[in-house]
Amino acid sequence: MTAYIFKIISLLGGLALFLFGMDIMGKALERQAGGKLQTILAKMSSKVWKGFLLGLAVTAVIQSSSASVGILQGLCVTGAVTYGAAIPIILGQNIGTCVTAMMGSIGANRNARRTAIVHLLFNVVGATIFVIVFYGLGMFIDWTFLSEPLRAWNISVIHTGFNLAATAVLLPLNGLLVKLAYVVIPREETPQEQVVDALVREVKSRHVRRLRDGLCTVEYGFVLEDLLTACERTADHCSNVAVEMLQVSEGKLEAHEYLNALKAGELHESAAFAEQFAQYKAQYAFPEE
């Protein structure tokens, strides 16, 4: 109970420090702004693509969309930020925040990299649809509010509205995003690795059923996830080492092409690949529940 209360106090304390810092930054910017800040922002966001790149770059550098949104909200206190300048910056912030996920997926297994790709595709496609619709309508509708200054809470509304709208539009198309992720990072698996992936999916499915039936806990689920990730990474590394050894022995360095051709049935080893997969699948099959 004491630990639980300490976590709540820590959470509230951290939030209070964040809000206090935002208030201090906003007041400092307001004192120092003058006409220079407004001129700089006007130049950097005079074009949609400039504001977009500004939001993307700042968010990518500090690797926090929350911090970059906070900075933008602090600038709003000065009255130097208009809707026309803020909207492209917010779109850039949503894509810039994907940099953290992309960097985190370096060295991870393919599924982790695909997850980062889906995150990137979600924001890129969402931003593209928004630009086409909003600025396309702007050719026929005079968005007079774009020249008006906005308040800090307006930033939150725009940011949240964009993400909710993008989710509503792209949620029915989640299968397409997954397919695109597999196009970017295709399957490159040995029979053993395919079997490990199938076992991982089955273990997760069984854990969900046990959790639903009250036979397991969420804490054990995290432990299980770590073990499964370790197994997947081991299979990935073994697969990569084996393929590279095969390629080096033949004086080649075409691992990707080799695996793709192997699974497509274009090599004489393809039949052996399918046979080994069936053998390992039967050997390591789970017993019926």
Explain what you see.
The protein starts with a helix and ends in a 6-residue tail after the last helix. Helix content is 78%, strand content 0%. It has two domains: 182 residues, no CATH class; 94 residues, no CATH class. The mean pLDDT is 76. With 289 residues, it is mainly alpha-helical. The protein is built from 13 helices and no strands. The longest helix has 32 residues.
- Nearest-integer average pLDDT: 76
Main pleated sheet: none
Query: Can you tell me the overall shape?
Result: globular
Q: List low-confidence stretches.
A: none
* Secondary-structure element series: HHHHHHHHHHHHH
Structural class call reads mainly alpha
User: What's the oligomerization state?
Assistant: single chain
Please bin the fraction of helical residues: over 70%
Task: Name some characteristics of this structure.
289 residues; mainly alpha; 2 domains; 78% helix
Write the layout of secondary structure elements.
Elements: H1 2-33, H2 36-44, H3 48-62, H4 65-76, H5 83-96, H6 98-104, H7 110-137, H8 152-170, H9 174-184, H10 191-212, H11 218-249, H12 255-263, H13 270-283
